[in-house]
Amino acid sequence: MKTKKIFDSFNYAFEGIIYTLRTQRNMRIHFIIAILVLFFSIFFDLSKMETIAVFITISLVIVTEMINTSIEATIDLITDKYHELAKIAKNVAAGAVLISAVNSIIVGYIVFFDKLDKLSTIFIHKVRNMPMNIVFVSLLIVIFIAIGIKAYFKEGTPLRGGMPSGHAAVSFSIFIAIAFLSQNTLIITLAFILALLVVQSRIESGIHSLIQVLVGSLLGALITLLIFNLVY
């Protein structure tokens, strides 16, 4: 029962993310910018503190946009008439989003501006000494894109059903990462088998169709393959 409740809690949380992404234009813009920033950050030699600042900034913008949406929905539930306090609440929430957006611009300027003149060199630089950063960013990009596609198709729930299969996308993203980072054929083969087992379990349980897991698998594999080919 506890496991089911925990699973439901995660599912409801992802439903909130998808609802905001589906209904709020600004949220879609934030997601697109987040994906682009995460992708291009791979080509910059970011320190740990700079990487943390980027992740916190992205999270802050997305969180404030979700809080703004929840406040607007709550006020609209309570009343459909104009009220000065309702206006203040919505304006304050929108102001919080604006501050977080301005903060993201400032952080982006501080972190990336002095590195732009080295872009051509960084673009071809092979970051072999920081493979975990590449894996982590690749997974985040795959997850963001999978959630975005789920929001577009409006099928299933975040953790169950829908196009594409997020589990398949993540499992094949991890498989491609292992294939690049490991020189051991046995490890690569085992990683591929595990990815196939994840896909097979989604089909056997009736959570996803064959097409959904195929699209998810290709999505995760191709995105990760593209990223690793660019930086390796």
UniProtKB/TrEMBL annotation:
GO terms for molecular function: ATP binding; kinase activity; metal ion binding. The keyword Nucleotide-binding applies. This is Diacylglycerol kinase (ATP). Belongs to the bacterial diacylglycerol kinase family. The active site is at 65 (proton acceptor). Residues 133-228 form the Phosphatidic acid phosphatase type 2/haloperoxidase domain. ATP binds at residues 12, 72. It holds the Pfam family PAP2. InterPro entries: DAGK, DAGK_sf, PAP2/HPO, PAP2/HPO_sf. CDD domains: PAP2_diacylglycerolkinase, UDPK_IM_PAP2_like. The chain crosses the membrane at residues 29-46, 92-112, 132-153, 174-198, 210-231. It is found in: Cell membrane. Mn(2+), Zn(2+), Cd(2+) and Co(2+) support activity to lesser extents.
